[in-house]
Structure formats: C-alpha cells, structure tokens
C-alpha cells in the first residue's frame, strides 16, 4: 500500500514540476515509498502505509533540487531514496506505531513489536519518536565517520578518488576502458579511442 501512496505522489510531483510524468521521478518515488515503510511495515494499517509512502516519496523527490543546487552528483538517487526515505521511515515508527496484541498468539511467541510503546498518534507521548530520532542521529554519525575515514584513506592512495578535470571532460569510459561508451540507439559499442 505504501507504493500506492508513493506512486501517486510521484506522478503529482512530476506533473507539477515538469508538466509531464517523468519515469525517473516515478521510479524514485516508488522506491522511496517502499524504503519508508520498511521499518514499520509489521505494525501499520493500510491507510497509514499509504500516508507514510506518500510523505516518503514527496520528501525524497523534493531533495533533487537541493542536490542540483549544491552540485552533488548522485546519478542513481541514493540520497533521496535511501537516506531521506529511511530517515522518514524510522521517524514514522515514532509517529504511527501501535503495539500489536495479536502477536502473543503467533507461533514465535512474540510479545510486542514496539516493546510496549505506541507512537505519537496512539499514545500522545513523543517518547518513541525521541528514541527513533536518537537512533537516526547515531546511525548517521556512525555512517558518516566510517565513510569519511574510508574515503580519507582511499584519497591518500596513489590512484586517488577523482579524475582530473581534463579526464572528467573526456569521460570515465574513455579514460578507464578506452571506449567512448555505448550507442544505445544502435545497441553497439563505439570504436576504440585513445586519450592522445
């Protein structure tokens, strides 16, 4: 159900922003809606899933403009889909979660999915939302530290992380593989080129 909300939001967002339905907006909207509902899929109702997916899709698609203004290269949409979608998904647990009392009858003898706590809508308390927010901050801190350490080490290696400006203009296909890339219209590989 989350993908229904995400898909509708993506179509509306795409139509409003570009005056037509863009396939890449649709794909990223659907993916971000599915990522958004993953953390809470066991304990939400269908209407909540649609709302979570719609909000996740809208948040993810709205980040594209920010990435373009900051000139951040994200060709596959990792930041909007996974970072924004998963952050919203974790926070949505603190808003929409409701303890499932039927789980005590399950074969696994599970007693609760939320450790006895309900989200903001059902309890009026922001305790679970605060716990989820702290978890988001800790995951972001750990991921950033690990990533920056790895990138710092790789950048100190002889091969580095980036191509020179000249190599970027020629293209990585030519520099790394000696090819101009694929001609998708004719489905054949272009002739071999050299950088000289």
Automatic annotation (TrEMBL):
What keywords is this UniProt entry annotated with? Membrane, Transmembrane, Transmembrane helix
What compartments host this protein?
A: Membrane
Task: Locate the transmembrane regions by residue number.
Answer: 47-67, 79-97, 129-154
Q: What is this protein called?
A: Ammonium transporter AmtB-like domain-containing protein
A GO cellular-component term linked to this record: plasma membrane
Example of a GO biological process term: ammonium homeostasis
Q: Which organism is it from?
A: Steinernema carpocapsae (Entomopathogenic nematode)
Molecular functions (GO terms): ammonium channel activity
Q: Classify the source by domain of life.
A: Eukaryota
């Amino acid at each position: 159900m989350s993908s229904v909300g995400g898909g509708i939001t993506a179509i509306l967002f795409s139509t409003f922003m570009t005056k037509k339905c863009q396939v890449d907006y649709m794909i990223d909207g659907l993916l971000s809606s599915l990522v958004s509902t993953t953390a809470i899929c066991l304990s939400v109702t269908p209407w909540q899933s649609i709302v979570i997916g719609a909000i996740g899709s809208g948040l993810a698609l709205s980040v594209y403009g920010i990435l373009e203004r900051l000139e951040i290269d994200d060709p596959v949409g990792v930041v909007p889909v996974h970072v924004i979608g998963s952050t919203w998904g974790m926070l949505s647990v603190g808003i929409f979660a409701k303890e499932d009392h039927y789980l005590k009858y399950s074969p696994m003898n599970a007693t609760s999915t939320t450790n006895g706590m309900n989200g903001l809508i059902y309890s009026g308390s922001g305790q679970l939302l605060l716990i989820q927010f702290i978890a988001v901050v800790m995951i972001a801190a750990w991921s950033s530290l690990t990533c920056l350490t790895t990138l710092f080490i790789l950048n100190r290696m002889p091969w580095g992380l980036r191509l020179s400006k000249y190599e970027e203009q020629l293209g990585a296909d030519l520099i790394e593989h000696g090819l101009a890339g694929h001609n998708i219209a004719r489905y054949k590989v272009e002739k071999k080129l050299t950088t000289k």
